[in-house]
Amino acid sequence: MSGTAFGATVKKWQPAEKVAMIRGLWLLMLVATTSVAASLPPLVLLTEDDPPLTYSASGKPAGMVVEIVREIQRRVGSRDAIEVMPWARAYRLAQSKADTALFNTNRIREREGMFKWVGPVTMTSGSLFVRQDSHARADSLDEAKRLSQILVVRDWYLQQVLIDEGFSNLGTVATPNQMITMLMLGRTEVIASENTTLPIQLRQQGYRGNEVRKLLTFTHTYGYIAFSKITSDQVVRTWQRALDEMKRDGSFAAIYHRWLPGEQVPD
């Protein structure tokens, strides 16, 4: 039996009426998006060269988190440019400049009150790595503190985590590429890096993943889009809602799996 009530008249949409209805819905969506965009200030969007999450390809920002940010921008109606620069410089700007966002920023206790957070957008493990032919050994943090030197990117969260654990044997460089070059040329024996980025960075410099080995893992963290404290809560809420929507409709997981197959997707 039909679900239409007895005696009810069912309207048959004419082609012209269907087109008009679709156009009307499209206009409503356009107006809503435009309204959101008009209410948001221009943003300064900063990232670093840390493939495959964020990097510069032929002078243009690229990478998994860049793709996620661009999809958020599309949904909120933002067309602000993304700039790639050394982490230490971007990190300073994100702490002092209004309406500024920095990604991928790992959210650790020491940074909690320094930013307003949108995410998470990544899950990472921080570990100590050496060349495969190295004789270095460290089965605990205490043993790692007795290594001659551990190289880490300046102002990375890994540097802060190790300092908080009492490490005084840290050396710093400006970029992950510099750190890997120094390791593979034998100019340093131990580096602090991540499970999500080191394999790609090694391959990009012409090395195989099995040319390094992990000494030990010392932290697990989530990465976020970090907005400066001098950014309105409305901006942060709007971006978080767009990210949450991406996670609900599956587009976030699709991007994550394309760039990091086999890795767990953050909720």
From TrEMBL:
InterPro entries: Solute-binding_3/MltF_N
Top-level division of the source organism's lineage: Bacteria
All residue ranges annotated as the Solute-binding protein family 3/N-terminal domain in the record: 47-260
Alphabetized Pfam families for the sequence: SBP_bac_3 (PF00497)
Protein's name in the database: Amino acid ABC transporter substrate-binding protein
Species this protein is from: Chromobacterium phragmitis
